[in-house]
Amino acid sequence: MKVLVCIKQVPDLESRFKPDAAGVWFSDTDLAFRMNEYDEYAVEEAVRLKEQLGDAPEVTVLSIGPDRVVEAIKKALAMGCDRAVHVQDPAVHLKDPWQIASIIAAYAKGEGFDLILTGMQSQDRGSAQVGVTLAELLDLPCATTLVGFSYADGGITAKRELEGGLKGIVKMKTPALVTCQLGLNTPRYPTLPNIMKAKKKEIAALPVADLLTSEALTTTVSFHPPAKRGGGIVLEGDVGELVTKVIGLLKEKTAVLR
Amino acid sequence: MKTLLIGEYREGRLLDSTYELLGFAGQLGAESVLFLVGSDSQLPAWNGALYLADAATCGEYNPDLHKLMILDAVAKESPDLIVFLHSSYGWDLAPRVAAALKLAQVSEVIGTADGAFEVGCCNGKMRRTVRPATQKAVLTIQAGAFQGVSPGGSPRVTALAPQGVSRVEFAGYEPAEAKGVDLAKAEIIVSAGRGVGKKDNVPIIAALAKALGGELGASRPVVDSGWVEHDHQVGTTGQTVSPKLYVACGISGAIQHLAGMKKSDFILAINKDRDAPIGEVADVLVVADLMQFVPALTLGLQK
Fold it and tell me: Count of domains in chain A?
Protein backbone atom coordinates (compact mmCIF):
# COMPACT_ATOMS: atom_id res chain seq x y z
CA MET A 1 0.00 0.00 0.00
CA LYS A 2 1.29 3.46 -0.91
CA VAL A 3 0.21 6.56 0.93
CA LEU A 4 0.91 10.20 0.04
CA VAL A 5 0.57 13.08 2.49
CA CYS A 6 0.70 16.62 1.10
CA ILE A 7 1.86 19.29 3.50
CA LYS A 8 2.38 23.05 3.36
CA GLN A 9 4.68 25.21 5.40
CA VAL A 10 2.91 28.31 6.71
CA PRO A 11 3.93 31.25 8.89
CA ASP A 12 3.08 31.36 12.57
CA LEU A 13 -0.38 32.91 12.44
CA GLU A 14 0.28 34.95 15.58
CA SER A 15 2.69 37.02 13.47
CA ARG A 16 2.14 40.50 12.10
CA PHE A 17 1.91 40.41 8.32
CA LYS A 18 3.29 43.01 5.96
CA PRO A 19 2.78 42.98 2.17
CA ASP A 20 5.77 41.96 0.04
CA ALA A 21 7.33 44.29 -2.55
CA ALA A 22 4.81 43.24 -5.22
CA GLY A 23 1.94 43.70 -2.74
CA VAL A 24 0.38 40.31 -3.54
CA TRP A 25 1.41 38.18 -0.56
CA PHE A 26 3.14 38.61 2.81
CA SER A 27 6.80 39.50 3.16
CA ASP A 28 8.82 36.51 4.42
CA THR A 29 11.17 38.52 6.57
CA ASP A 30 10.77 38.28 10.35
CA LEU A 31 8.33 35.37 10.08
CA ALA A 32 8.72 31.99 11.77
CA PHE A 33 7.43 29.06 9.70
CA ARG A 34 5.86 25.77 10.74
CA MET A 35 3.81 22.91 9.31
CA ASN A 36 0.22 23.89 8.44
CA GLU A 37 -1.82 22.72 11.42
CA TYR A 38 -4.41 20.85 9.30
CA ASP A 39 -1.58 18.92 7.64
CA GLU A 40 -0.26 17.71 11.00
CA TYR A 41 -3.52 15.80 11.36
CA ALA A 42 -3.04 14.34 7.87
CA VAL A 43 0.51 13.19 8.72
CA GLU A 44 -0.65 11.71 12.03
CA GLU A 45 -3.50 9.80 10.37
CA ALA A 46 -1.13 8.37 7.75
CA VAL A 47 1.32 7.25 10.44
CA ARG A 48 -1.49 5.68 12.47
CA LEU A 49 -2.62 3.75 9.39
CA LYS A 50 0.94 2.52 8.97
CA GLU A 51 0.97 1.34 12.58
CA GLN A 52 -2.44 -0.31 12.19
CA LEU A 53 -1.29 -2.27 9.15
CA GLY A 54 1.93 -3.50 10.70
CA ASP A 55 4.28 -1.11 8.95
CA ALA A 56 3.12 -2.28 5.50
CA PRO A 57 2.17 1.07 3.91
CA GLU A 58 4.95 3.24 2.59
CA VAL A 59 4.16 6.83 3.48
CA THR A 60 5.57 9.59 1.26
CA VAL A 61 5.32 13.20 2.37
CA LEU A 62 5.35 15.95 -0.27
CA SER A 63 5.79 19.67 0.06
CA ILE A 64 6.21 22.46 -2.49
CA GLY A 65 8.23 25.57 -1.77
CA PRO A 66 11.62 27.17 -1.17
CA ASP A 67 14.42 25.47 0.78
CA ARG A 68 12.90 26.36 4.16
CA VAL A 69 10.00 23.91 3.62
CA VAL A 70 12.50 21.08 4.24
CA GLU A 71 12.03 21.91 7.95
CA ALA A 72 8.33 20.97 7.72
CA ILE A 73 9.25 17.87 5.71
CA LYS A 74 11.74 16.82 8.40
CA LYS A 75 9.07 17.12 11.06
CA ALA A 76 6.75 14.85 9.04
CA LEU A 77 9.59 12.32 8.66
CA ALA A 78 10.26 12.49 12.40
CA MET A 79 6.54 11.88 13.04
CA GLY A 80 6.86 8.64 11.05
CA CYS A 81 6.63 9.23 7.29
CA ASP A 82 9.07 7.03 5.35
CA ARG A 83 10.33 9.23 2.58
CA ALA A 84 9.86 12.71 1.20
CA VAL A 85 9.56 14.68 -1.99
CA HIS A 86 10.51 18.33 -1.99
CA VAL A 87 9.19 20.11 -5.06
CA GLN A 88 11.58 23.05 -5.20
CA ASP A 89 9.78 26.28 -5.95
CA PRO A 90 11.00 29.62 -4.60
CA ALA A 91 7.90 31.28 -6.09
CA VAL A 92 5.25 28.91 -4.71
CA HIS A 93 3.34 31.83 -3.21
CA LEU A 94 2.59 33.09 -6.74
CA LYS A 95 0.96 29.82 -7.80
CA ASP A 96 -2.79 29.52 -7.45
CA PRO A 97 -4.54 26.45 -5.97
CA TRP A 98 -5.17 25.04 -9.46
CA GLN A 99 -1.44 25.10 -10.24
CA ILE A 100 -0.50 23.62 -6.86
CA ALA A 101 -2.94 20.75 -7.40
CA SER A 102 -1.66 20.29 -10.97
CA ILE A 103 1.95 20.07 -9.79
CA ILE A 104 1.08 17.41 -7.20
CA ALA A 105 -1.04 15.53 -9.74
CA ALA A 106 1.85 15.52 -12.23
CA TYR A 107 4.04 13.92 -9.54
CA ALA A 108 1.42 11.48 -8.23
CA LYS A 109 0.06 10.30 -11.60
CA GLY A 110 2.44 7.43 -12.21
CA GLU A 111 3.06 6.56 -8.57
CA GLY A 112 -0.06 4.49 -7.86
CA PHE A 113 -0.93 5.90 -4.45
CA ASP A 114 -3.77 4.05 -2.73
CA LEU A 115 -4.52 6.87 -0.37
CA ILE A 116 -3.74 10.59 -0.45
CA LEU A 117 -4.21 12.77 2.62
CA THR A 118 -4.16 16.57 2.75
CA GLY A 119 -5.24 19.18 5.26
CA MET A 120 -8.73 20.54 4.51
CA GLN A 121 -7.18 23.98 3.99
CA SER A 122 -4.05 25.99 4.71
CA GLN A 123 -3.98 28.41 7.61
CA ASP A 124 -2.55 31.23 5.51
CA ARG A 125 -4.46 31.15 2.21
CA GLY A 126 -7.37 28.98 3.30
CA SER A 127 -8.87 28.27 -0.11
CA ALA A 128 -9.78 24.65 0.76
CA GLN A 129 -9.29 23.79 -2.93
CA VAL A 130 -6.02 21.91 -3.42
CA GLY A 131 -7.07 18.53 -1.97
CA VAL A 132 -10.36 18.30 -3.86
CA THR A 133 -8.88 19.59 -7.11
CA LEU A 134 -6.07 17.04 -6.84
CA ALA A 135 -8.68 14.28 -6.44
CA GLU A 136 -10.45 15.53 -9.57
CA LEU A 137 -7.22 15.66 -11.56
CA LEU A 138 -6.38 12.09 -10.52
CA ASP A 139 -10.02 10.96 -10.90
CA LEU A 140 -10.18 9.73 -7.30
CA PRO A 141 -13.19 9.58 -4.98
CA CYS A 142 -12.80 12.21 -2.29
CA ALA A 143 -14.33 13.33 0.98
CA THR A 144 -13.42 16.51 2.82
CA THR A 145 -13.32 17.84 6.37
CA LEU A 146 -12.69 14.54 8.15
CA VAL A 147 -12.96 14.28 11.91
CA GLY A 148 -13.05 10.48 11.79
CA PHE A 149 -11.20 7.96 9.61
CA SER A 150 -11.02 4.19 9.60
CA TYR A 151 -9.63 1.79 7.05
CA ALA A 152 -10.17 -1.93 6.50
CA ASP A 153 -9.70 -4.14 3.42
CA GLY A 154 -9.51 -1.37 0.85
CA GLY A 155 -12.52 0.44 2.30
CA ILE A 156 -12.60 3.80 4.08
CA THR A 157 -15.26 4.91 6.53
CA ALA A 158 -14.96 8.61 7.16
CA LYS A 159 -16.76 11.07 9.37
CA ARG A 160 -17.18 14.53 7.88
CA GLU A 161 -17.70 17.55 10.08
CA LEU A 162 -20.77 19.54 9.05
CA GLU A 163 -22.20 22.68 10.64
CA GLY A 164 -23.60 22.98 14.17
CA GLY A 165 -21.98 19.81 15.54
CA LEU A 166 -23.63 17.49 12.98
CA LYS A 167 -21.44 14.88 11.29
CA GLY A 168 -21.91 12.90 8.09
CA ILE A 169 -20.68 9.32 7.65
CA VAL A 170 -19.36 8.38 4.22
CA LYS A 171 -17.80 5.23 2.78
CA MET A 172 -15.58 4.81 -0.24
CA LYS A 173 -13.03 2.44 -1.71
CA THR A 174 -9.34 3.11 -2.23
CA PRO A 175 -7.66 4.57 -4.17
CA ALA A 176 -9.11 7.72 -2.64
CA LEU A 177 -8.26 11.15 -1.28
CA VAL A 178 -9.34 12.63 2.04
CA THR A 179 -8.87 16.11 3.53
CA CYS A 180 -8.34 16.37 7.27
CA GLN A 181 -10.03 18.74 9.72
CA LEU A 182 -8.65 19.86 13.08
CA GLY A 183 -9.48 17.40 15.84
CA LEU A 184 -9.28 14.29 13.63
CA ASN A 185 -6.66 12.84 15.98
CA THR A 186 -3.95 14.10 18.31
CA PRO A 187 -0.79 14.74 16.27
CA ARG A 188 2.27 13.33 18.04
CA TYR A 189 5.36 15.26 18.96
CA PRO A 190 8.44 13.81 17.29
CA THR A 191 10.68 12.07 19.84
CA LEU A 192 14.45 12.64 19.84
CA PRO A 193 15.25 9.10 18.60
CA ASN A 194 12.74 9.55 15.76
CA ILE A 195 14.21 12.94 14.88
CA MET A 196 17.62 11.24 14.63
CA LYS A 197 16.17 8.38 12.55
CA ALA A 198 14.50 10.89 10.23
CA LYS A 199 17.88 12.36 9.30
CA LYS A 200 18.65 9.14 7.41
CA LYS A 201 15.39 9.19 5.41
CA GLU A 202 15.38 10.12 1.74
CA ILE A 203 14.28 13.59 0.66
CA ALA A 204 14.05 13.60 -3.15
CA ALA A 205 14.32 17.06 -4.66
CA LEU A 206 12.37 17.82 -7.84
CA PRO A 207 12.50 21.17 -9.63
CA VAL A 208 8.98 22.57 -10.04
CA ALA A 209 9.63 23.20 -13.74
CA ASP A 210 9.59 19.41 -14.28
CA LEU A 211 6.01 19.18 -13.00
CA LEU A 212 4.31 22.48 -13.79
CA THR A 213 2.42 22.68 -17.06
CA SER A 214 -0.66 24.72 -16.08
CA GLU A 215 -1.27 28.44 -16.20
CA ALA A 216 -2.85 30.09 -13.17
CA LEU A 217 -6.64 30.47 -13.28
CA THR A 218 -6.72 33.28 -10.73
CA THR A 219 -4.51 36.30 -10.03
CA THR A 220 -3.99 37.96 -6.69
CA VAL A 221 -4.32 41.69 -7.30
CA SER A 222 -3.44 42.78 -3.79
CA PHE A 223 -2.69 41.66 -0.24
CA HIS A 224 -3.67 44.17 2.42
CA PRO A 225 -4.97 44.56 5.96
CA PRO A 226 -8.75 44.75 6.45
CA ALA A 227 -10.34 48.17 6.47
CA LYS A 228 -10.64 49.01 10.17
CA ARG A 229 -14.17 49.05 11.44
CA GLY A 230 -14.91 52.17 13.46
CA GLY A 231 -16.49 52.28 16.87
CA GLY A 232 -14.37 49.85 18.86
CA ILE A 233 -12.42 51.24 21.79
CA VAL A 234 -8.85 50.00 22.33
CA LEU A 235 -7.58 50.14 25.91
CA GLU A 236 -3.99 49.66 27.02
CA GLY A 237 -1.96 50.40 30.11
CA ASP A 238 -1.89 49.70 33.84
CA VAL A 239 -3.99 46.66 34.80
CA GLY A 240 -5.65 48.36 37.77
CA GLU A 241 -6.72 51.31 35.66
CA LEU A 242 -7.88 49.01 32.86
CA VAL A 243 -10.14 47.13 35.29
CA THR A 244 -11.74 50.36 36.51
CA LYS A 245 -12.29 51.56 32.93
CA VAL A 246 -13.74 48.23 31.75
CA ILE A 247 -16.15 47.95 34.70
CA GLY A 248 -17.23 51.54 34.02
CA LEU A 249 -17.85 50.76 30.35
CA LEU A 250 -19.77 47.59 31.13
CA LYS A 251 -22.03 49.50 33.54
CA GLU A 252 -22.56 52.28 31.03
CA LYS A 253 -23.01 50.28 27.83
CA THR A 254 -24.58 46.99 28.88
CA ALA A 255 -27.58 46.13 31.01
CA VAL A 256 -25.92 43.13 32.59
CA LEU A 257 -23.95 44.69 35.44
CA ARG A 258 -26.02 45.48 38.48
CA MET B 1 -24.54 38.78 -15.85
CA LYS B 2 -26.04 35.44 -14.92
CA THR B 3 -25.36 33.43 -11.77
CA LEU B 4 -26.12 29.79 -11.02
CA LEU B 5 -26.60 29.56 -7.26
CA ILE B 6 -26.13 26.22 -5.52
CA GLY B 7 -28.66 26.01 -2.68
CA GLU B 8 -28.29 23.87 0.43
CA TYR B 9 -30.54 21.25 1.95
CA ARG B 10 -29.90 19.00 4.95
CA GLU B 11 -31.84 16.48 7.01
CA GLY B 12 -34.92 17.05 4.87
CA ARG B 13 -34.90 20.84 5.15
CA LEU B 14 -33.98 23.73 2.89
CA LEU B 15 -31.22 25.73 4.63
CA ASP B 16 -31.75 29.48 5.12
CA SER B 17 -28.23 30.09 3.80
CA THR B 18 -29.74 29.54 0.33
CA TYR B 19 -31.25 33.03 0.64
CA GLU B 20 -27.76 34.48 1.23
CA LEU B 21 -26.78 33.28 -2.25
CA LEU B 22 -29.77 35.18 -3.65
CA GLY B 23 -28.69 38.22 -1.61
CA PHE B 24 -25.18 38.01 -3.06
CA ALA B 25 -26.50 37.77 -6.63
CA GLY B 26 -28.82 40.68 -5.92
CA GLN B 27 -25.87 42.78 -4.77
CA LEU B 28 -24.14 42.05 -8.08
CA GLY B 29 -27.31 43.01 -9.95
CA ALA B 30 -27.16 39.60 -11.63
CA GLU B 31 -29.85 37.38 -13.05
CA SER B 32 -30.13 34.25 -10.90
CA VAL B 33 -30.93 30.63 -11.47
CA LEU B 34 -31.03 28.26 -8.49
CA PHE B 35 -29.85 24.67 -8.32
CA LEU B 36 -30.92 22.49 -5.42
CA VAL B 37 -30.74 18.86 -4.47
CA GLY B 38 -33.74 18.95 -2.16
CA SER B 39 -37.43 18.24 -2.19
CA ASP B 40 -40.49 19.72 -3.89
CA SER B 41 -42.08 20.00 -0.44
CA GLN B 42 -39.25 22.34 0.69
CA LEU B 43 -38.97 24.76 -2.20
CA PRO B 44 -37.17 28.06 -1.73
CA ALA B 45 -39.72 30.91 -1.54
CA TRP B 46 -38.46 32.91 -4.49
CA ASN B 47 -39.73 33.88 -7.95
CA GLY B 48 -37.24 32.47 -10.43
CA ALA B 49 -35.96 29.39 -12.20
CA LEU B 50 -34.97 26.39 -10.08
CA TYR B 51 -33.24 23.22 -11.19
CA LEU B 52 -34.35 20.64 -8.66
CA ALA B 53 -33.07 17.13 -8.07
CA ASP B 54 -34.67 14.86 -5.51
CA ALA B 55 -32.50 14.34 -2.42
CA ALA B 56 -34.42 11.16 -1.59
CA THR B 57 -33.06 9.48 -4.74
CA CYS B 58 -29.73 11.35 -5.18
CA GLY B 59 -28.70 11.56 -1.54
CA GLU B 60 -28.12 14.80 0.39
CA TYR B 61 -24.37 14.26 0.14
CA ASN B 62 -23.24 12.60 -3.03
CA PRO B 63 -20.52 14.76 -4.56
CA ASP B 64 -20.01 12.75 -7.77
CA LEU B 65 -23.72 12.87 -8.70
CA HIS B 66 -24.29 16.43 -7.51
CA LYS B 67 -21.33 17.57 -9.60
CA LEU B 68 -22.73 15.96 -12.75
CA MET B 69 -26.16 17.50 -12.22
CA ILE B 70 -24.63 20.95 -11.67
CA LEU B 71 -22.65 20.50 -14.90
CA ASP B 72 -25.95 19.65 -16.61
CA ALA B 73 -27.52 22.89 -15.31
CA VAL B 74 -24.38 24.85 -16.33
CA ALA B 75 -24.65 23.46 -19.88
CA LYS B 76 -28.30 24.55 -20.06
CA GLU B 77 -27.82 28.04 -18.55
CA SER B 78 -24.23 29.01 -19.37
CA PRO B 79 -23.86 31.16 -16.20
CA ASP B 80 -21.02 33.65 -15.72
CA LEU B 81 -20.67 32.71 -12.06
CA ILE B 82 -21.43 29.45 -10.27
CA VAL B 83 -21.85 30.35 -6.62
CA PHE B 84 -21.75 28.10 -3.55
CA LEU B 85 -21.75 28.84 0.16
CA HIS B 86 -18.34 28.34 1.77
CA SER B 87 -19.72 25.50 3.89
CA SER B 88 -19.05 21.79 4.38
CA TYR B 89 -21.27 21.24 1.31
CA GLY B 90 -19.91 24.10 -0.80
CA TRP B 91 -16.16 23.79 -0.23
CA ASP B 92 -16.47 20.06 -0.87
CA LEU B 93 -18.33 20.44 -4.16
CA ALA B 94 -17.12 23.72 -5.70
CA PRO B 95 -13.57 22.60 -6.64
CA ARG B 96 -15.02 19.52 -8.36
CA VAL B 97 -17.21 21.70 -10.59
CA ALA B 98 -14.39 24.20 -11.17
CA ALA B 99 -11.94 21.43 -12.13
CA ALA B 100 -14.44 19.76 -14.47
CA LEU B 101 -14.96 23.07 -16.31
CA LYS B 102 -11.38 24.26 -15.81
CA LEU B 103 -12.64 27.49 -14.33
CA ALA B 104 -11.09 29.84 -11.79
CA GLN B 105 -12.35 29.35 -8.25
CA VAL B 106 -12.28 32.06 -5.62
CA SER B 107 -12.96 30.75 -2.11
CA GLU B 108 -14.76 32.39 0.79
CA VAL B 109 -15.65 35.68 -0.86
CA ILE B 110 -16.57 38.49 1.53
CA GLY B 111 -16.92 41.33 -0.96
CA THR B 112 -16.89 42.24 -4.63
CA ALA B 113 -14.99 44.95 -6.48
CA ASP B 114 -15.07 45.53 -10.21
CA GLY B 115 -14.81 41.96 -11.45
CA ALA B 116 -12.49 40.97 -8.61
CA PHE B 117 -13.34 39.47 -5.24
CA GLU B 118 -12.25 40.23 -1.69
CA VAL B 119 -11.30 37.24 0.46
CA GLY B 120 -9.84 36.84 3.94
CA CYS B 121 -6.50 35.15 4.59
CA CYS B 122 -3.92 34.57 7.34
CA ASN B 123 -6.59 33.53 9.84
CA GLY B 124 -8.69 36.59 9.10
CA LYS B 125 -5.88 39.06 9.80
CA MET B 126 -5.35 40.08 6.18
CA ARG B 127 -7.31 40.35 2.94
CA ARG B 128 -6.59 39.47 -0.68
CA THR B 129 -8.22 40.83 -3.80
CA VAL B 130 -8.44 38.00 -6.32
CA ARG B 131 -9.34 38.22 -10.00
CA PRO B 132 -10.41 35.20 -12.05
CA ALA B 133 -8.31 34.74 -15.19
CA THR B 134 -11.14 32.84 -16.87
CA GLN B 135 -14.26 34.45 -18.41
CA LYS B 136 -16.50 32.49 -16.08
CA ALA B 137 -15.75 31.54 -12.49
CA VAL B 138 -16.76 29.44 -9.50
CA LEU B 139 -17.16 31.19 -6.14
CA THR B 140 -17.81 30.17 -2.58
CA ILE B 141 -19.15 32.99 -0.41
CA GLN B 142 -18.53 33.31 3.30
CA ALA B 143 -21.55 32.38 5.42
CA GLY B 144 -23.05 35.53 6.91
CA ALA B 145 -21.05 37.91 4.70
CA PHE B 146 -24.01 38.80 2.48
CA GLN B 147 -27.48 39.73 3.67
CA GLY B 148 -30.03 37.10 2.65
CA VAL B 149 -33.14 38.10 0.69
CA SER B 150 -36.50 37.83 2.46
CA PRO B 151 -38.33 34.68 1.35
CA GLY B 152 -41.32 35.28 -0.89
CA GLY B 153 -42.77 33.78 -4.06
CA SER B 154 -42.47 30.39 -5.69
CA PRO B 155 -39.94 29.10 -8.21
CA ARG B 156 -40.43 27.67 -11.70
CA VAL B 157 -39.13 24.15 -11.28
CA THR B 158 -37.20 22.10 -13.83
CA ALA B 159 -36.60 18.59 -12.54
CA LEU B 160 -33.16 17.06 -13.02
CA ALA B 161 -32.64 13.31 -12.98
CA PRO B 162 -29.51 11.78 -11.45
CA GLN B 163 -27.06 10.32 -13.92
CA GLY B 164 -23.68 8.65 -13.60
CA VAL B 165 -21.94 6.61 -10.95
CA SER B 166 -21.18 7.74 -7.42
CA ARG B 167 -18.08 6.50 -5.69
CA VAL B 168 -18.76 8.04 -2.28
CA GLU B 169 -21.56 6.38 -0.35
CA PHE B 170 -23.39 8.48 2.24
CA ALA B 171 -24.17 6.34 5.28
CA GLY B 172 -26.16 8.79 7.39
CA TYR B 173 -25.76 11.51 9.97
CA GLU B 174 -24.36 11.45 13.45
CA PRO B 175 -26.30 13.99 15.51
CA ALA B 176 -24.58 16.75 17.48
CA GLU B 177 -23.66 15.73 21.00
CA ALA B 178 -26.37 16.49 23.55
CA LYS B 179 -25.88 19.95 24.92
CA GLY B 180 -25.05 20.15 28.60
CA VAL B 181 -25.14 23.93 28.39
CA ASP B 182 -27.44 25.84 26.06
CA LEU B 183 -25.25 28.83 25.30
CA ALA B 184 -27.88 30.20 22.92
CA LYS B 185 -29.99 31.10 25.99
CA ALA B 186 -27.16 32.66 28.01
CA GLU B 187 -27.20 36.44 28.53
CA ILE B 188 -23.51 36.56 29.36
CA ILE B 189 -20.80 34.34 27.91
CA VAL B 190 -17.12 34.43 28.81
CA SER B 191 -15.09 32.42 26.32
CA ALA B 192 -11.59 31.01 26.53
CA GLY B 193 -9.34 30.94 23.45
CA ARG B 194 -5.95 29.50 22.65
CA GLY B 195 -4.41 32.51 24.39
CA VAL B 196 -5.22 30.98 27.80
CA GLY B 197 -2.13 28.86 27.14
CA LYS B 198 -2.99 25.68 29.04
CA LYS B 199 -5.83 23.73 30.61
CA ASP B 200 -4.77 24.80 34.11
CA ASN B 201 -5.63 28.39 33.21
CA VAL B 202 -9.23 27.67 32.18
CA PRO B 203 -10.55 28.03 35.80
CA ILE B 204 -9.33 31.66 35.73
CA ILE B 205 -11.67 32.32 32.79
CA ALA B 206 -14.46 30.27 34.42
CA ALA B 207 -14.08 32.41 37.56
CA LEU B 208 -14.73 35.57 35.51
CA ALA B 209 -17.80 33.92 33.97
CA LYS B 210 -19.05 33.15 37.48
CA ALA B 211 -18.36 36.66 38.75
CA LEU B 212 -20.42 38.05 35.85
CA GLY B 213 -23.17 35.46 36.34
CA GLY B 214 -22.56 34.01 32.87
CA GLU B 215 -21.65 30.77 31.14
CA LEU B 216 -18.22 29.56 30.03
CA GLY B 217 -17.68 29.38 26.27
CA ALA B 218 -14.65 28.30 24.27
CA SER B 219 -13.10 28.56 20.84
CA ARG B 220 -12.37 25.54 18.72
CA PRO B 221 -8.63 25.05 19.50
CA VAL B 222 -9.43 25.00 23.22
CA VAL B 223 -12.04 22.28 22.68
CA ASP B 224 -9.79 20.30 20.30
CA SER B 225 -7.05 20.39 22.93
CA GLY B 226 -9.46 18.90 25.46
CA TRP B 227 -9.27 21.90 27.81
CA VAL B 228 -13.04 22.54 27.69
CA GLU B 229 -15.93 20.21 26.74
CA HIS B 230 -17.32 20.45 23.21
CA ASP B 231 -20.76 21.61 24.34
CA HIS B 232 -19.15 24.95 25.29
CA GLN B 233 -17.81 25.58 21.79
CA VAL B 234 -18.88 28.80 20.09
CA GLY B 235 -18.61 29.07 16.31
CA THR B 236 -19.75 27.56 13.03
CA THR B 237 -19.19 23.99 14.18
CA GLY B 238 -20.34 24.66 17.73
CA GLN B 239 -23.12 26.95 18.93
CA THR B 240 -24.16 30.26 17.43
CA VAL B 241 -24.80 32.78 20.19
CA SER B 242 -25.97 36.39 20.62
CA PRO B 243 -25.79 37.22 24.34
CA LYS B 244 -26.05 40.70 25.84
CA LEU B 245 -22.36 40.50 26.77
CA TYR B 246 -19.67 38.35 25.16
CA VAL B 247 -16.20 38.36 26.68
CA ALA B 248 -13.52 36.86 24.40
CA CYS B 249 -10.42 35.94 26.39
CA GLY B 250 -7.36 35.17 24.30
CA ILE B 251 -9.44 34.51 21.16
CA SER B 252 -7.76 35.73 17.99
CA GLY B 253 -11.03 35.75 16.07
CA ALA B 254 -10.92 33.09 13.34
CA ILE B 255 -13.77 33.55 10.86
CA GLN B 256 -15.51 30.41 12.12
CA HIS B 257 -15.56 31.82 15.64
CA LEU B 258 -16.66 35.30 14.61
CA ALA B 259 -19.54 33.81 12.64
CA GLY B 260 -20.79 32.24 15.87
CA MET B 261 -20.70 35.32 18.10
CA LYS B 262 -20.52 38.57 16.16
CA LYS B 263 -24.21 39.30 16.70
CA SER B 264 -23.68 39.64 20.46
CA ASP B 265 -24.98 42.97 21.81
CA PHE B 266 -21.66 43.96 23.42
CA ILE B 267 -18.29 42.34 22.85
CA LEU B 268 -15.36 42.77 25.21
CA ALA B 269 -12.14 41.22 23.89
CA ILE B 270 -8.98 40.71 25.88
CA ASN B 271 -5.92 39.94 23.80
CA LYS B 272 -2.21 40.61 23.89
CA ASP B 273 -2.20 41.20 20.11
CA ARG B 274 -3.83 44.53 19.24
CA ASP B 275 -4.04 43.45 15.57
CA ALA B 276 -6.04 40.27 16.34
CA PRO B 277 -9.11 40.06 14.05
CA ILE B 278 -11.37 39.85 17.13
CA GLY B 279 -10.73 43.62 17.32
CA GLU B 280 -12.85 44.07 14.19
CA VAL B 281 -16.02 43.02 15.99
CA ALA B 282 -15.15 44.03 19.57
CA ASP B 283 -16.79 47.06 21.17
CA VAL B 284 -13.87 47.18 23.59
CA LEU B 285 -10.47 45.58 23.02
CA VAL B 286 -8.27 45.40 26.08
CA VAL B 287 -4.65 44.85 25.05
CA ALA B 288 -3.24 43.06 28.06
CA ASP B 289 -1.82 39.85 29.45
CA LEU B 290 -4.82 37.58 30.18
CA MET B 291 -3.36 36.09 33.31
CA GLN B 292 -2.87 39.52 34.85
CA PHE B 293 -5.99 41.27 33.62
CA VAL B 294 -8.68 38.58 33.96
CA PRO B 295 -8.08 37.79 37.67
CA ALA B 296 -7.94 41.53 38.39
CA LEU B 297 -11.24 42.08 36.57
CA THR B 298 -12.84 39.16 38.42
CA LEU B 299 -11.67 40.65 41.72
CA GLY B 300 -12.93 44.10 40.70
CA LEU B 301 -16.37 42.70 39.88
CA GLN B 302 -16.59 40.85 43.20
CA LYS B 303 -16.03 44.06 45.19
Answer: 1
